[in-house]
Structures are given as C-alpha cells and as structure tokens.
Amino acid sequence: MSIKQFEADLDTNILNIHKELENAGDKFIRYADDFVVMTKTKEELPAVLQYVKEITEEKLGLELSKDKTKLTNFKRGFRFLGYNFSGNYKGISMKSLDKLKDNIRNITRRTQGVNLQAVIDTLNPVIRGHVNYFRLGDVQKVYRSLDCWVRMRLRCFKFSRKWKTDNKRFPVHRFFKMGFLSFEREFLTACAKA
Question: Which of 38, 46, 78, 122 has minimal Cβ neighbours within 10 Å of its Cβ?
C-alpha cells in the first residue's frame, strides 16, 4: 500500500467516524492526528471509546496513545493542542509553558558570546509566535508573570548574575527602547486586532 493510499484511507475512515459520531449527537474535533470526542452524558463515553478503538485499531491498524487517551469531563479538564481546557477556562497547558520556558532559557544562556540586543532579536519571534498561537486563551495573567521572568533572565544575561538592584539598574523602559516585545503587550495588541 502506498503512502498516498494510506492517507486517503485514513481520511475516509476519520470522516466516517466524524459523521457517525455527529449523527449520534456527539462532537468530534480533530487536528491532524489528534482528536477529541465529546458526548452528552458520561454513560455514553465507554461505548464511544470502544467504537473509536475498533475503527483505529482494526480498520486503520493504528493504536491510540495510552498517555493521551482518557475519559474526563470539562470540570476536571483535558489538554488538547497545547491548551488546557477546564470548565470555562482555556489556557496554556503546563507542558507547553515548560517547553516555552526551556526555549527561553536556551536563548538567554549567559555563555553565548553575543550582546543583549542579539538575544532580544532572537527572543522576539518566539514571543510573537507563542502569543499568536495562544491569543484565544485566558492567558493575560500567565503572560504578565512570564514577562517578569523573561526580563529577570535578560537582566541576568546582561549583568552575568542576579542581584536585588537589577530592576533599578536596567528598568523596563530600557528593554522596550531596545525593541523587546512583551508577552502581555503583544497579547493585548493581538486581541485588539481580532
């Protein structure tokens, strides 16, 4: 079987799953190979899970991830595409936030041999991309604390250590003069455009 044939079969079977679940009154949300199935009652969940397992394992020859597959409700919440959904809250999942912080730690390493302007120029596309992806979530408070953390990292980069007077020695307005993008400012700008 060629790759194109496999992709065509996959799309056809997923479309069939989608149609059958929609006809039964359930919701099916999919992006690439990730999907969420929502039912009206918790009693329907085991039957729907069994149906989806049968289709994916028997017809497609694929296996559902045991780490990602779980039965839950909106109050307990779930993660999907980097977002954390819980009740009416839609925010950044801890895994996505940790990955972002690791990326920022890598960019703001003190032993790079570059100046602060080069670090800010490298950091700005990361900030802009993250804000554009998560602008639909409830993330303003997270971004506010993340801004403080990033500025602390940049001050540590500049002075090669952390000291309690660093905020006075290198205030926030100097970062903005250098072209630093704030998570919170970018988020508010993206919300205003939408």
Answer: 46
